[in-house]
Amino acid sequence: MDIQSKRDLYSIYFLSNSGVVVIMSYLILLMQERGLDETQIGYIAAYSAIATLVSNTFFGRLSDIIGRRKFIIFGLLVSSVSTFLFVVPVDYLGFTLARVFNGIALGVFPSSLVGVASDRGMKLGKLSAYGSIGWATGGLLGGYLADVLGLQWLFITSSIFYLLSFLAALLLGTGKGFKPAITDETKSERMYSKAVKRNWMVYLLFILRHGTANAIWIYWALFLQNDLHLTRTQIGVVQATNMITQFVLMRAVTDRLNPRLMLILGGLASSLAFFSFTITTSFLEIVLTQIILGIAWALFYVGGLRTVEEQSKKDGIVATGTGLFNASLSTSQIMGPFLAIYLFSISADYILSMNFAAITTLIATSVYFVIGRPANSFSW
Prior knowledge:
- This protein is mostly helical.
- It has a single domain (7-172, 198-371), classed as Growth Hormone, Chain: A.
- The chain has helices at 7-33, 38-66, 69-84, 92-106, 110-119, 124-148, 152-169, 185-188, 191-217, 220-227, 232-252, 259-277, 283-313, 318-347, 351-371.
């Protein structure tokens, strides 16, 4: 059955992102609460990112060959199970196994969701906005539950969000008029090379920007809790401010602006946001920085996603191209923890990683602006 309404896809995006914010924002605090140190937390994050990278790359290609729906349904179900299992581990090995399983699960469905949206001709900025408001909802609810009930209840709640998105996905068709774009196996082997050839500069820019940013995010909750002395509810508000800003901008403008211009503006704003973290001293100040960060990521992420989608449509490999786009984010999440561990060993604080991300992002964005203008594509 193919649901003509777009609300089913918006619901899945909202619910699944409400679940993932708990993993990204509060798992670090749970691991520290159960005795893990910064180095162990960093390595576990890298293992999870490797698993997600492989999963995104593999299942994105399969989605273009044999269809979308089965990967959405299966991915959301195993994401629910794997998120619930975070309440079980008590040591480094247990959290490593749980994060690798969860990393694989979280890579199964995203490219298929974007593929369905593209098949239906949906606006990716508006779709991404529902993901951001899901992050805001999960962040606010998660912070409150952590203060009132304890961290382990967050992961039960996150698992429920994924379960609800799984139930919504049971009503989802494969995408309006979807037919596998690649039916010849020899041609399918060239899908990755075509996607990389068209989009490699976008992938590289995301790896550099998001990789250095992940050196911040690995210890972000610890920075907010230990350096700024925020409560867990306040941490939820900080996260939600970022996501609500993203939601507003994604809904209002990101489907209308030139995607490559958004990449440039988003990169420059990201550099400013990273530097602003280093001079904050209070809850109110860090909330203000999240408005800058929300604007930056809305422009940068949707600009990159739309660029990859439009370029990949030319070869009928949208899920492959966006799967590699998600894989570039996973590559960043591999790079980030090792970079964070190294920088933390030098400075023993969280500030050096913020300055490093600001400088690297500024340089990478400037290089993309100079040499990233394709002769065979749409203009800036």
